Structure formats: C-alpha cells, structure tokens
From TrEMBL, chains A, B:
Species classification: Bacteria, Bacillati, Actinomycetota, Actinomycetes, Micromonosporales
GO MF term list: 3-isopropylmalate dehydrogenase activity
Keywords assigned: Manganese, Metal-binding, NAD, Oxidoreductase
Keyword Metal-binding: yes
Isopropylmalate dehydrogenase-like domain location: 3-337
The protein's name: 3-isopropylmalate dehydrogenase
Organism: Paractinoplanes globisporus
InterPro entries: ICDH/IPMDH, IsoCit/isopropylmalate_DH_CS, IsoPropMal-DH-like_dom
Cofactor(s) needed by this chain: Mn(2+); Mg(2+)
Amino acid sequence: MARIAVVAGDGIGTEVTAEARKVIEAVLPGTEFDDYDLGARFYNRTGEVLPQVIEDELAAHDAILLGAIGDPSVPPGVLERGLLLKLRFDFDQYVNLRPSKLWPGTTSPLAGLKPGEIDMVVVREGTEGLYVGAGGVLHKDTPAEIATEESLNTRHGVERVVRDAFARAQRRERRHLTLVHKTNVLTKAGSLWARTFAAVAAEFPEVTTEYQHVDAACMFMVSNPQRYDVIVTDNLFGDIITDIAAAVTGGIGMAASGSVNPERKYPSTFEPVHGSAPDIAGQGIADPAAAILSASLLLEHLGHQDEARRVSEAVAAEVASRAAGASLRTAEVGDRVAAAL
Amino acid sequence: MARIAVVAGDGIGTEVTAEARKVIEAVLPGTEFDDYDLGARFYNRTGEVLPQVIEDELAAHDAILLGAIGDPSVPPGVLERGLLLKLRFDFDQYVNLRPSKLWPGTTSPLAGLKPGEIDMVVVREGTEGLYVGAGGVLHKDTPAEIATEESLNTRHGVERVVRDAFARAQRRERRHLTLVHKTNVLTKAGSLWARTFAAVAAEFPEVTTEYQHVDAACMFMVSNPQRYDVIVTDNLFGDIITDIAAAVTGGIGMAASGSVNPERKYPSTFEPVHGSAPDIAGQGIADPAAAILSASLLLEHLGHQDEARRVSEAVAAEVASRAAGASLRTAEVGDRVAAAL
Ligand SMILES: CC(C)[C@H](C(=O)O)[C@@H](O)C(=O)O
Ligand SMILES: CC(C)[C@H](C(=O)O)[C@@H](O)C(=O)O
C-alpha cells in the first residue's frame, strides 16, 4: 500500500487537498495518509520551516501531496526556500513536470482555440540553475551595494532531465521535443544545454527536435501554443513558461505539477500550480481540479497508470459538465469526481 | 543638425531601415546619416564584428538607427554579444525602452480586446544582470562539466533605471509602476531591486506602485495585460516580458525599442524588436512599421517630441487604413507615412 505524506499547507491549500485525498481514497482504497502541519501557520507558531525530524519522516513516504504554501504574514522567500525548494533539492526532484491542456469546458483567452488544440508537457529542471541560491550581497544599503545570483549547471544535472524529456516525448503521439534556453546570451550554460541535448537526441532517433530562445518561445506560447508537444528547459525558464502555458489554457485552475525524482529514491511532491489564495480561503469555493489532477500525476508516478487516467478523465468530465457561470463548491467537486470513479 | 549612424544590418534590416530613414528625412530635413556596414555580411567578409575604430566613429553620433542583425551563417551569440550587447554595455544604454500598444488596425490574439485597451511601456535594465557575460565552463565535454552564469547587480545600476521608470510613469496618465522580479527565489538580487524600488518610490508620491513575481506577471500579461502602465524589471526578465507584450498586442510587427543612455553621454540605439527574417528578405514585403516607430523613439530621445508624435501618429493611421488581407510593399508603407508628414 502506498504511504502518502499530506502537506495541505495554507489558505485554500487545505481545502483542495482534502478533495485530492478523497479522490485517491476512492481509486486506491487502503492508501495510508500522514498529515504534516507545515507552512505559514506552523512557521508563525514555531519559528521553524521544516525541522530535520519532519523532513526525515517525509523521506520515508512514497510521495508527498501538497496543497499550497504561503501567507502575507511570512516574509517572501522564507517558506519558498525553506520548504518547497528545500524538498526539491534534498529529495533530488530534478524533473519538474507540468502538463498543460486546453480541456473541454475551459476557455483559452486566445481567440479561436478549441479544446484539445493545446496539449503539451513542460519538463522543467528542478535542482540547478538560478534556484541553487548561490550568490551574495556586499555593502548592503550603501550606494556601493552589489548583489549577485549564480546559475550553476552540471552535465550530470542537464543530461538526466534532458533524457527524461526525450523519453516522455518518445511515449507521446507527436514525439516532438523543444529545447528552450537563451544560448545567444547565456553562452556558457546555453552551450552545455545545447551540446547535451544534441548528444542525448542521438539515443532517440524517433523524436523530432527543435531549439528556441526563451523570448521567442514565450511569444509562440501566445501566438501558436499548438506547436508544442514536450518542452525541456532550465529551472527559471521553466518557471516562467509554465505560467504562460497555464494562462493560455485558461488559467491556473487546471494547472497540476509534480516535482519528481524519477528513480523513486526519494519521495516526489505533487501540487497544484496555484497558490494559497488567502482572499478566497475558508469559503469552500476554491476549485480543486488542479489539486486532483496533481493527485493523478502522483498515481501515475507510483505506477498506477490506469487509476491516474481514470482520475484525470473524471476531472475532465466534471469540468466539461459545469454550467457556465454556475458557482462552485470545493467539496462537491471532489464528491462528484470520487463518485464517478 | 542631428547626426545619425545607420546600421541597417542583415536580411529585412536593410529594407525596413531605408523606410525609417525616409521618414526621419521627411520630418527633420537636413539630418545627416552615416551608413555602417555591420552584421553577418561584414563578419563573414572580415572575421570581425565591431572594429574599435568603427565603434569610436559610432560614438561620435547622436543616435544609432539599427535594422536587424543576424544570419544562419553566423554561430549564435557572436553578433549578439559582439555588436548588439557590446553597444548596450559600452555606450551605457541602461534604459531599454519597449512600448507596447494595441493599435487600431491590429488584432490581439487575446479574445475580445479592443485597440487602445493595452498601452504599456516596459523599462528593461540594459547593462547588468545575467547579460554581463560572467561565468565559465569547467571540464568541457566530459561527464564532470559544469557551466555557470552570473547575474551581477549594483545599487548604482538598479537605482538609475528604477528612477528613470518612475519619471516615465510620472509623465503618463495612469501613473502606475509595476516592479517585476523573482524576489522569493533570487533573494539577493531581488532584495536589492525591492529595497531600491521602495527608496526611489518615496521621491514619486504620485506614482502608485505594485510588485509582481515574473512568473505571475507573465501570466497576467496574457490574462489581463490592460492592468499594466509602466513596468520596470531586470535585463533577462525584460527580454522575456517584452516579447510576451509584443505577442499580446498582435506580434512583433509593431514592436519598437530603444537602448537608451538617458544622459546622452553616448549614442542610444533604436531598433525594431523583430529580427532579420532571412526567409522573407529581399522581397520588399517586410512591414517597416516597427522600424519607423523606433525612429519615432529616436526623435523623442533627441528632443523632437513633436516630430516623434507626428511620426507615430502617421504610422498608426497607415496601419489602421490597411485593408484586411491586402499585401504590403515595404517601400510603399514608408512612402505613405512620409507623405502624410
Ligand atoms: C513558489 C516558487 C518558489 C515556485 C518556483 O519559482 O518554482 C513556484 O513559482 C513554482 O512554479 O512552483
Ligand atoms: C538578440 C538578443 C541578444 C537580444 C536580447 O536578448 O536582448 C534580443 O532578444 C532583444 O530583446 O533585443
């Protein structure tokens, strides 16, 4: 039986995670869940973000189901660096997986696009680049202040995520992989990515490939998102591109993500892309679709392909059946999806 | 009389620049133009990108009118780093100015947006950040390879561009300025930007301010671009955001830019955001609108506010008058705009 650590977190995180859990229980009865109280409330109470003993306990689970972390009462960066990014780094979650689809029942802000026309996955590197936290500040708060940020990239780190992206592209219908970087400006890291990409491509002759600069890719993401199948890119570019991909497929309401350690040496984290939304928290009106789709990614990662597919189909059916403008109750959405399974 | 260096460059660069020059001649008769043959052809012929003597000559001009640089025959990065970025750095062009408007006669890919509804300027820092070229590669082409890129940010560099952006916001109707960064991950550079922004804000009490993470800003750029008035951001984020801004206002056909040294100690460069488009070069069918709008920014920078306004209004009128689907001749567009002045 799968053992899942639940970090429901703050704001609507707790509400949507309850529904994701409900759905996993419906499709995989007997799954064990252990709740962990982490996030803004925990930090404000204890002054700690992620005690080592808790992290050790998390490490003993098969996966982590996360809601959303963050509250205006906590300074920016504290929970992000101390919890979300710490888990990505410590648990070697080097594949940050973000599918974007234009689902039936959802509307793209782009004119004339029909459901089904956008269907892409961004494979974002999760453990390197500008996210490593290297750099420093000198002469703070003086006119002489300087601040640096260092992007660290290894052949090891780039190769493994690029290979993962090729393998995913290989399993999809269109078998197309786009590398996104900024090789004309970031010539050092860009060259490492481009050379590694070319080397790994030789192992996947059936996958067609393409390179785009990040600025051009962001433009195409708006003018022609249909062109993308799988995208592989670095940590920061992936952060940006996946939010645009979410926007053109109708917003973050359906945006799921996984921070994955493919070898399953460490637990992977699955969470909706949206935040804790303090403005609507506590009212039971948050849409749990993205959280439930994240649960579907979790099931897939744990080898339950069939259950994963059934869950995402049930979410799609639920969303497609929504009457335009009808108000939504978080728990009812979860109930309907669970009942359909 | 203004002395302008013309770097028409490659591909459609030469074609659209001829029209921009025609328009400047119409509105400021007597302007002196000196042509410089730089870009891919020059590089392929001489093996040099920007000889020091040429750069010294460029430095003696009031401004540089640039077309587009680049050709598949030149490895990526060579002309970008050796010419475009070199001018930005050597001529201290720290304000990279990119207005985006939804003009009458153009169509946004975003559903339901009407001309006039988007009107923003991105003030992108032009001389710091990840563009400085710092970093290196170790153990190249071995499994132990690492590549680094370093983002360098100074209080000096951030403060001057932030102050420029506040001053621009102050002169506009809505007087709203958005800082875009990624303070929750890039905590060192982000903190420098945020603290500097807050300090300069005190000098501009009439400007309302807002902060957004770059990923959220890119999402809003698609879901609600109307919300933006002036945006100030770092070099790389600005590169990305301005391409999205161009995309949501109908593509790069109307996207003008200036790399500006506000003190006019060095010449500023004005160029369309689009590239050299080798695929359509030589056919006389490239739209010179963005190049002519860049000429308008040039005129404004040199203190010819009235002429600048007349040029951009003439371009707007020309674009608005285009029959849907009609084919376009580069020279005719320039002729019509020049004739209208
Ligand atoms: C919260 C933040 C640290 C995080 C990131 O930048 O990766 C978020 O934007 C995301 O995309 O998961
Ligand atoms: C060509 C390239 C170096 C340049 C940049 O990244 O600044 C371009 O994309 C731009 O936006 O002017």
